[in-house]
Amino acid sequence: MDGNGSLFGTLQGNTREILTSFTVDLPKKHGECIVWSSWMWKLIRDFMPRFFSRVVWLVGRGGQSALRFARLRMEKRHNYVRKVSEVAVSCFISNDRVNVAGLVLAGSADFKTELGQSDMFDQVSK
What we know:
The protein is an alpha+beta fold and 126 residues long. It has helices at residues 38-47, 49-59, 65-92, 109-116, 122-125, and strands at residues 5-12, 15-23, 93-94, 97-98. β3 and β4 form a beta hairpin.
């Protein structure tokens, strides 16, 4: 499990079986911003001066929007952890019984910690 997706599988002896996997597109911490080279800025400033301030305003993400973007980012991360725990329950629990001997969580430390401490994941980890 990491910021790109999750993979669920089983290991029995030398046999590996992938049960399911999915990808996710989570927003980055500092956002996706447009990279402008210096000649682009000069072109805009020199040939379109009345649009220059508007372009600078569109590229920036600061101010009150920063809190909103942070909140949306955390909400998407939480939804992703919830989806991972739901898929884990569907893969590793059948007839209200756990059908594996143990679980290995691998990937990003933040996601593993959040998933391991999640209430949604408790029924799988018992």
